[in-house]
Amino acid sequence: MTYMAARKARLLLASSLLAIGVHQGAHAETTRAPSLNGYGVSGLIDMPSGEMQPDGYLTMSTAHWGPISRTTLSFQISPRMSASFRFLGIRDWSDCMPACNATTFGTYYDRSFDFRYQLLTEGRYIPAVTVGLQDLAGTGVLSGEYIAATKHITPAVKATVGLGWGRLGSHGAIGAPFGERGRIDIGKGGKFNFDQWFRGDAAPFAGVEWQINDKLTFKAEYSSDAYVVEDKQRGTFRQRSHLNYGLEYYVNEWFQVGGYYMYGSEVGLTAHFIMNPKQRPMGSIKDTAPDPVKLRPSRTADPEAYSTDWVTQADAAPILITNLNKRLRPDGIEVEAISYSADRALVRIRNQRYDAEAQAIGRVARAMAHAMPESIETFEIVPVVDGLPASRVTMRRSDLERFENSPTAAESMRAATVISAPGSQAGLTYDPELYPDFTWSLSPYNRIRLFDQRGSPFKMDVGARLAARLEFAPGWVLEGSAVKRLAGNLGNIPPAKPSALQEVRSDVERYDANGDPAVERLTLTKYAYLGGDVYGRISAGYLERMFGGVSAEVLYKPVNSKWAIGAEANYVAQRDTDGLFGFGEYDYRVATGHISGYYNFAPGYHAQLDVGRYLAGDVGATLSVDREFASGWRVGAFATKTNVSSEDFGSGSFDKGIRLEVPLAWGTGRPGRKTYETTIRPFGRDGGARLDVEGRLYEAVRDYHEEGIDAQWGRFWK
Amino acid sequence: MSRSSLLIAGLLCSALAACGNQTEISPVLGAITQAAKGATTKAKGPAAPPAEVTRADLAQLKVPVIKGELKSGNATFYLVPISVKGNVQTWSTSDKLTVTFRDSVMSETRGFGPDIMQSSGPTLAQLRSGNSTHRRSYVYLDGGDQLIRISYDCTARSAGPATVTVVGLQHSTTHVVETCTANGASFTNEYWFENGGKLRKSKELLVSEWGHLELARVIDGG
């Protein structure tokens, strides 16, 4: 074939699938989720309903009317249980009570937590019934409880009736069935207001929702909320009616907006962003096809092919590594070492690309079927993370050949695959070109501070981050990062709040302001597989923004178990706020460490308990509970209680928060291991603060353990 | 490089995308870059229709060729065989889109996104008979990487003779229509068999939301 003909042929064979990808909603078709209200929970306009969002949904709602702005993050923890975290702002907040003429106005900010439980799901005759606790802890400005029932009257019309307490029982009360509602004992906040729940006056509310067509929904409701504080006490707006009505526009499954006329005096707007961690918006991951498994000739037809002479060939190992890497590099996988005998080969791989570990293993297995001499029947694949072998996946080559195109390919292959501890790593030949392995990047970063009550509740810096990593031998990693601020408003140090504890975290503003540029981290770490099911790490240097020192960790995590146990010990000193190399500013040293237990107590539900000594020298425990999705999403909450009193801790009484981890592949629909993590603490103080060291072992190895691989096993053959 | 030019280089790096030698620094920026590229391509106006591919062009490849079309994606592609294992054949485009046939009936795909990961279905002889009742089952990966199986009850019936044109050449065929239903969902596959029994052309379901692949056997194997 001439060059031109060959070129033309290549162009011909390149598919023209440009248009694909527009409509990748395969399998995403679901019935429409219940609509959300201005509190960001399933409901009408200002009132809740008896419905729940579909399991796992994470919604972000922002609602604004008159002086009131609420932004709410809600998570459907299980089919019947949901929780919300809300940030509230009320403008025109008079500083004299009750509202008077000569006064100044400000904006009142508050945070609130809700919890809802669905007692009944909607049936043919019975309505969906939910009980809810709104703003169930702390200052309780929004506090109210309710029981709400919702029933479809026609497929397009549903009605809600409910009974509210607290602020939801403040208008049109019919009595106080469960006794008087006491005053909230706020203290330092963060306490559950058990004594208030469902006490005091109860008042009915009701509403209807009519889905006019695919896009428009009309809502009307009668509200039982008298807005006593906002209207009568603080004079932020005038409530002239208890009827609210409006229209909502369904842009798509993931975005909806609404406009309302509220309480006879104000115009309201809402926007709801809806995410389903169980399903990528674009459906199944799109990736190039793998090479088909290469079949070996039958041993009887071609016994020569099965010769084992190659085993003694001096340069066999480097040739095999080169051949494997030729096939695997386009897939973002590197073979770093190999060992073999006549009928068995082990490869150590680094997976830089596949969010689904099973897919990386599937790709390596196919590459081995192409590159390995015919006499090799057993494939062993050892995924390596930071030089740490995480597990060993063993399969027979003939099973790979046999099951590839079977109608039960995935199930059959899984049944024939063994996932075990990494085991002996002796006799490896490394790719000589792999070490030292140097990577660097210069990328933008942002740093966000929420809920800063001195000024704006949302502050942010943006800038550039220079990061570099040198793995100079397997498991030996020297890495660091530095940042330079380019713009933002974290530069001003607000007046210091006195802390009864060492300012291990509360001085974050000083680090934000003074550290420009700052060395965030500069560490030398050794990761080691200690044999059996035991992994180890030791790190030294500038471990995090505020502390430097040494950190050592061991982890016991059997490959096939739902639990693990680990221990971490650190001796650290508090760094100077200029983000450079000194420790003199605070002259504070502390030994800190934890014993940690990890337990996957139900499919997709994970708990972690850390018991030990925290940075301020306080002693206590942290419980974290997360919902984990095969897609890589993680949504969870944590709370830490130590021997620091509520008084000494300050606002919030104890450390707690919610955390989110979102995989990029969920949004792009392409393979990738990058995830975004964020932790939201309503009150970040010095009690219960843990060292933020990188490279903790549990998260590094568990992806390649049985549950991690099996969660996305279907992608083995992708 | 002066200090200020270093700074400018750094700013550009930050503003445009991440720099460095890491393979996966900031895929968000990668995605934005891709989107931007898409936008600039679009800005040039609609792409010129691809030049008509002739039978002679394809014959020059000197290998069997199947012309594939995905009507819902307005896409055309050409496949050549890359693997034969017994009655299972895998065909591929040069940019790694593959279709696998079991006994000449499409059984798997890769590279499309919502691919048929595994399946079971009728034999070619059952379809060719124009009088068959059989089951089909398709397994897909959903948007959360879980395998979902959809099974259908199907019948294949002859729809009489038909002439089909495949890249400039007419073929006399028998048209067979396969109708499959499951829980209210249904789809129809079509097959065009030549007198000798050769399957010349077919229209087979990829996934219900996307529709069918049309597969025309243009250049046959020696």
Structural commentary:
The complex is a heterodimer of chains A (718) and B (222). By secondary structure, chain A is mostly beta strands. Chain A folds into 3 domains: 58-275, monomeric porin ompg (Porin, Beta Barrel), CATH 2.40.160.40; 303-433, 2-Layer Sandwich (GMP Synthetase, Chain A, domain 3); 445-473 and 475-701. In chain A, the strands form 3 sheets. In chain A, strands 20-21-22-23-24-25-26-27-28-29-30-31-32 form a 13-stranded antiparallel beta sheet. In chain A, helix 3 (316-328) crosses helix 4 (357-371). The two termini of chain A are 33 Å apart. Chain B is an alpha+beta fold. Chain B has 2 domains: 3-43, no CATH class; 55-219, YmcC-like fold. In chain B, 18% of the residues lie in helices and 50% in strands. Chain B has helices at residues 3-16, 27-43, 55-59, 124-128; strands at residues 19-20, 65-70, 75-85, 88-92, 98-102, 105-110, 116-120, 131-141, 147-166, 169-182, 185-193, 199-207, 211-219. In chain B, strand 4 and strand 5 form a beta hairpin. Mean pLDDT of chain B is 81; it is low at 1-18 and 22-48. Chains A and B meet through helix 1, strand 20, strand 21 and helix 9 of A and helix 1, strand 1, helix 2, strand 3 and strand 4 of B. Strand 20 (437-450) of chain A pairs antiparallel with strand 1 of chain B.
Secondary-structure map with pairings?
The complex is a heterodimer of chains A (718) and B (222).
Chain A (H helix, E strand, L loop, with lengths): L2 H11 L44 E8 L2 E11 L2 E14 L10 E16 L7 E7 L9 E11 L2 E10 L36 E9 L4 E7 L5 H6 L9 E10 L2 E8 L3 E10 L40 H13 L4 E8 L3 E8 L5 H15 L6 E8 L2 E2 L2 E5 H7 L5 H7 L2 E3 L8 E2 L6 E14 L7 E16 L2 E13 L19 H7 L3 E14 L2 E9 L4 E10 L6 E12 L14 E14 L2 E9 L5 E10 L5 E9 L3 H4 L5 E9 H5 L6 E6 L16 H6 L3 H5 L8
Parallel strand pairs in A: 14-15
Antiparallel strand pairs in A: 1-2, 1-12, 2-3, 3-4, 4-5, 5-6, 6-7, 7-8, 8-9, 9-10, 10-11, 11-12, 13-14, 13-19, 15-16, 15-17, 17-18, 20-21, 21-22, 22-23, 23-24, 24-25, 25-26, 26-27, 27-28, 28-29, 29-30, 30-31, 31-32
Helix pairs in contact in A: 3-4
Chain B lengths: L2 H14 L2 E2 L6 H17 L11 H5 L5 E6 L4 E11 L2 E5 L5 E5 L2 E6 L5 E5 L3 H5 L2 E11 L5 E20 L2 E14 L2 E9 L5 E9 L3 E9 L3
Antiparallel strand pairs in B: 2-3, 2-13, 3-4, 4-5, 5-6, 7-8, 8-9, 9-10, 10-11, 11-12, 12-13
